[in-house]
Amino acid sequence: MSSLVVFGANGATGHVIVEEALHAGHTVTAAVRDPATFRPVRDAAPDVVRADIRDLDSVRAAVTGHDAVISAIGPPGRTADGLYSSGARTLVAAMAAGGAGRLVALSSSGARQDDPNHPLWYRVVARTLMGDLYGDMRLMEDIVRDSPLDWTFVRPARIVDEPPTGAYRVEDGVNPKGGTSVTRGDLARFVVHAVDDKRWSRRFPTIAR
Questions:
Q1: Whole-prediction pTM
Q2: Which residue in 32, 149, 137 sits closest to 97, CA to CA?
Q3: Contact predicate 18/9, CB 8 Å
Q4: Do 78 and 110 touch, CB atoms closer than 8 A?
Q5: Which of 8, 11, 58, 162 is deepest in the core (most CB within 10 A)?
Q6: What is the DSSP letter of 136?
Q7: Annotation: CATH topology of 3-208
Q8: pLDDT recorded at residue 22
Q9: pLDDT at 194 over 80
Q10: How many C-beta neighbours within 10 Å does residue 12 have?
Q11: Among residues 141, 136, 197, which one has the least CA distance to residue 173?
């Protein structure tokens, strides 16, 4: 088992990732901006530390001593405000200094503009209404891809709050044909599994049911 630190641990997906990682037997640290607001986890208690993904010193302190980092950061709306790209720069620098070399980060199926398995209407929305968000995700991916980190970018389809099914498909760098959504629980389980799964090293597993 690994020692993991999860950024974005107070978000909808990040919180489920913390739960899944604990239940899988990992040692988990939840990195959040305000530890007082961290919601309890079922049947377990992760370490909780203060860290702002845009602040190098706090991120460096959070990652030091861990085997791997999971990033589930995300803005509350459709505008990224540079969150993904600035977070990527911070993580690359902090992980180089802190010794953790493995990064599994959430991106999105929509980050690939020319995905042949996306319907035309979705590609139009990705370039217009979601253009800022997906553009910053692509920049995040580029920054990390050019680093020496052992990275994996998990690109989910639309995330839905339904019970996990285990019935999902994963393709490298392309949306599974006809796939439109994935449950949050299934996504979290895949992310945790990907930490130690070498076949996804420097890959873009794209997950949908």
A1: 0.95
A2: 149
A3: yes
A4: no
A5: 8
A6: H
A7: Rossmann fold (3.40.50)
A8: 97
A9: yes
A10: 12
A11: 141
Do residues 103 and 69 touch, judged by C-beta distance below 8 A?
A: yes
Provide the token pair at 20.
């899944």
* Contact between residue 203 and residue 172 where contact means Cβ atoms under 8 Å apart: yes
Can you read off the two tokens belonging to residue 49? 């530390």
pLDDT tens profile 118-145? 877 777 777 776 789 999 999 999 999 9
Lowest model confidence (mean pLDDT) among 26-40, 71-85, 107-121, 165-179: 107-121
Token duo for residue 62: 């959070």
Please give the angle made by the CA atoms of 52, 17 and 119, to the nearest 5 degrees: 95
CA distance 127 to 55: 30
Question: Residue 123 corresponds to which amino acid?
Answer: R
- The position carrying tokens 């319907």 is 119
Kindly state the helix (H) or strand (E) to which residue 7 belongs, with its residue range.
strand 3-7
For 94, residues 6+ apart whose C-beta sits below 8 A from its C-beta are: 56, 59, 60, 62, 63
